[in-house]
Specification:
The complex is a heterodimer of chains A (249) and B (132). With 249 residues, chain A is mainly beta. Chain A contains one helix and 17 strands. The chains are: A mainly beta (249), B mainly beta (132).
């Protein structure tokens, strides 16, 4: 039997966070990257999680929200003290994973972030944006007031459709690049470009605003991942080609 | 057979070899015990046949007045239940402190659980290695 180690897979170089959602049941899920960030399931009351199996047999995690108000959704989080390695400021980082989002709520839906809105840290979110279906990346930097945050976005993230999102950010470069299914996308940037996030000491959140009371992610997700380096376009394409058959894409 | 056909054959062999590679993967965490039986590790519905190697459980925090039971369960048919396979009592101080439970190749699901039987609630670090 031929074996390759997870850590030797080229795309996994310097991977810091990886949730392949293999548990399939219950309220535990485990980080397969070396840091083993402890994750907690949170159900404030209205929403629900479900473990669903695709036709391929791959298990995914579905986030259901009943509205946009406090307590209407569900989210995962990791305590700030246990994810300091995801505090990106001036350096390189990449974020990605498979999403199939539901825009029915009509509000921005946070995928993943470690941030305080207009304060510090970084986050990513989806929005129908008048039919453009955008994936936005935001760097929060209160220290640069009055410029409290900088944003960029890509378009065409169709709700109800599985897609691999990949964000590559080169430290010191103002123009991160988004990828969909391994292909680099045309980007829109603020005039300033993407300034560095301020240092952040907050919980990592998946599926909700940093205040954990809004902007609920609605839909399914698999394999949210974070790297402490820049993934090249060919690496996003390799990941897509390796995993696409599970999603029928 | 032309050069192009040979190239196609070689490429198919390369793809087949790549597809046969299993990825050796690891994960872990820390479980805080309770009177109830709690999951240490679970893969409830693998997408494919996979080969868990084993799980380490660190009993360093367990004192002489503590006790815990470690169990493993497997699902051996589609839509079946998780059936108890192994059950071991760990009473008092463990020596050596790191316990290893071998796991079996599996297609339909498995879980490893821990349940406090005596003494205080303790934290148990664990690590599982598997090929998938």
């Amino acid at each position: 039997m031929n074996i390759i180690s997870y850590d030797k897979i080229p795309e996994n170089e310097n991977i810091l966070f990886d949730l392949p959602f293999r548990e399939g049941v219950g309220t535990e899920t485990f980080d397969h990257a070396k840091p083993h960030h402890p994750m907690t399931f949170n159900d404030p009351g209205g929403g629900s999680f479900s473990w669903d199996a695709l036709a391929s047999g791959l298990g995914v995690l579905t986030f259901a929200a009943v509205g946009g108000g406090p307590g209407d959704g569900v989210y995962l989080d990791c305590p700030a003290a246990d994810c300091a390695d995801l505090n990106f400021t001036t350096g390189d980082f990449s974020v990605g994973g498979w999403i199939k989002w539901d825009s029915a709520g009509g509000f921005s839906e946070i995928i993943i972030g470690r941030y305080g809105t207009n304060l510090d840290g970084w986050d990513t979110f989806l929005n129908i944006s008048g039919g453009r279906n955008t994936l936005s990346q935001r760097h929060n930097h209160a220290s640069l007031t009055p410029n409290l945050s900088s944003q960029c976005f890509s378009e065409g993230w169709i709700p109800g459709t599985w897609a691999l999102f990949g964000i590559s950010r080169i430290g010191g470069n103002l123009y991160p690049v988004h990828h969909r299914n391994g292909v680099a996308l045309e980007m829109s940037y603020e005039d300033t470009g993407m300034l560095d996030p301020d240092t952040c000491n907050r919980d990592l959140v998946i599926g909700c605003r940093n205040t954990k009371d809004a902007n609920w992610y609605r839909g399914s997700m698999w394999g949210p991942r974070v790297w402490g380096r820049v993934l090249a376009a060919v690496e996003w394409l390799n990941i897509f080609n390796d995993e696409r058959d599970f999603f029928g894409v | 057979m032309g050069i192009g056909d040979f190239g196609a054959l070689i490429w198919k062999e390369v793809v087949a070899i790549a597809a046969s590679l299993l990825t050796l993967t690891e994960t872990g965490g820390t479980l805080t015990s309770s009177d109830g039986e709690l999951n240490l590790y679970i893969n409830n519905a693998p997408a494919d046949l996979y080969a868990p190697r084993g799980i380490f459980i660190d009993f360093t925090a367990q004192t002489g007045s503590d006790g815990a039971t470690l169990r493993s369960y497997y699902r051996v048919k589609s839509d079946g239940g998780l059936i108890l396979n192994t059950e071991t009592a760990h009473v008092g101080l463990e020596d050596p402190q790191l316990v290893y439970l071998a796991l079996r190749d599996n297609r339909y699901g498995l879980k490893v659980t821990l349940q406090k039987t005596d003494g205080a609630v303790r934290d148990y670090d664990w690590e599982v290695v598997y090929k998938i």
